[in-house]
Amino acid sequence: MPSVFSIHLAPLAIGLLWLSSWCAAAEDSLRVIDNPGGGRVVYGPVHIAAGNNARIQAGNAHTAEDARSASSQAHMDNIDRFTKSFQNYQIDQTGLQDNNLNARGAVPNTLADSLIRANPDRFQAIPAGNFLMGVDF
User: Fold this and answer.
1) In contact, 124 and 102? CB cutoff 8 Å
2) 107 — phi, psi (to 5°)?
3) Distance between alpha carbon 110 and the CA centroid of its chain, in Å?
4) What is the spatial distance between Cα 88 and Cα 94, in angstroms, rounded to a whole number?
5) Hey, how many other C-beta atoms are within 10 angstroms of the C-beta on 40?
6) Cα–chain-centroid distance for residue 85?
7) Confidence of residue 5 (pLDDT cuts 50, 70, 90)
8) What is the dihedral of CA 6, 11, 15, 17, to 10 degrees?
9) d(Cα 88, Cα 51) in Å, to the nearest integer?
């Protein structure tokens, strides 16, 4: 018959074996790096997962910022486009496109009207919404 002492030690021995195997596995998954500021840093799977989550959050933040930036840029382009249209109105000019030469520019209203009436297939007035950035404004 086993003694009372050995019955109580068996679970303890099993627990110690499990703990030692778990510690060995945990130690294998840990990494040590030298800290540029001095000392050493130990990190493991939890730190790696946190780093991955931080990269995902940063990527999402960059995507959202890119969308806001694109929206803002489109808004500013629209303002510039209609500012040029108002400028043409103030100095009596019309945005004109020559379809044969694939050329565009602002010309006096009287000249634009004459060219469009003379050859409507070749010359077209450019609406402000169709102004091209870097060409018309």
Assistant:
1) no
2) -130, 160
3) 47
4) 6
5) 8
6) 32
7) low
8) 50
9) 55
Amino acid at 106: A
d(CA 9, CA 1): 15
Choose between 65 and 137: higher pLDDT: 65
Any alpha helices (H) in 30-44, and if so which ranges? none
The tokens describing 88, both together, are: 């043409």
- Distance (Å, rounded) from C-alpha 119 to C-alpha 13? 101
Q: Which tens digits make up the pLDDT trace of 56-110?
A: 888 888 888 888 888 899 999 999 999 999 999 999 999 999 999 999 999 999 9
- The structure tokens listed for 1 are 């018959």
Whose tokens are 């000392």? That residue is: 39
User: In whole angstroms, how far apart are CA 18 and each of 5, 9, 23?
Assistant: 21, 14, 9
Half-sphere exposure of 114 (CA within 13 A, CB side): 6
Residue 135 DSSP one-character state: T
